[in-house]
Design brief:
By secondary structure, the protein is α+β, with helices and mostly antiparallel strands. It has helices at residues 24-41, 46-52, 126-135, and strands at residues 7-10, 54-65, 74-84, 88-97, 103-115, 120-121. InterPro entries: 4-hydroxybenzoyl-CoA_TE (IPR050563), HotDog_dom_sf (IPR029069).
Length: 142
C-alpha cells in the first residue's frame, strides 16, 4: 500500500559532521519523528496516549545506511507496518533523497505498547488493532 510520507524535511549544514554528510544522530531523530506520525495514523495519537495512560517503547532498532545525505538535501520518510502482535508492532522506515528518489537509509523498529503506570506491556485497544491491520504490508527485503 503506497502511503503518504510520515516525515519530510531538509538536511541543514549544522546537522552535518566533519566529513560533510548528515551525522547519524540526525538520521535517528528524523526516523523518530516519522515514528510519531505513523503511530498517529494507527490511532496511537498523543491524545490517546495521554488519556489511556499508554505509551510506546522501542525495544529494537536497526538502521542500514545506503547513501549519504548532504546539506541542502530534501528528504522524506515513508513508513510501512510489517507486523502487528497483541502488544507489539514492527515497522520499517525508508528515508529517501526526495530529489533523486534514492534510498538513503532504512530503519526497522520493534516497539511495545505499554501501560505507563504499571511499566509493563499492554494489549493494543481493539480500535487501534483494526486501524493498524489496514496498514499491514508484506515485508520487503533490503
Amino acid at each position: 500500500m503506497e502511503q503518504e510520507a510520515t516525515y519530510r524535511g531538509t538536511v541543514y549544514p549544522w546537522q552535518c559532521d566533519h566529513v560533510g554528510h548528515m551525522n547519524i544522530m540526525w538520521y535517528v531523530g528524523k526516523f523518530d519523528e516519522a515514528n510519531w506520525n505513523l503511530f498517529a495514523r494507527l490511532g496511537l495519537t498523543p491524545s490517546y496516549l495521554r488519556i489511556s495512560g499508554r505509551g510506546m517503547a522501542a525495544v529494537q532498532q536497526n538502521i542500514t545506511y545506503k547513501r549519504e545525505l548532504l546539506a541542502g538535501d530534501i528528504i522524506q520518510v515513508r513508513s510501512h507496518l510489517l507486523e502487528l502482535r497483541e502488544k507489539s508492532i514492527r515497522f520499517r522506515h525508508e528515508m529517501t533523497n526526495a530529489e533523486t528518489s534514492e534510498i538513503a537509509a532504512l530503519c526497522e523498529i520493534t516497539a511495545v505498547h505499554m501501560d505507563r503506570s504499571l511499566r509493563k506491556s499492554a494489549p493494543f485497544a481493539e480500535t487501534v488493532r483494526e486501524t493498524a491491520l489496514r496498514y499491514l504490508v508484506e515485508p520487503v527485503e533490503a
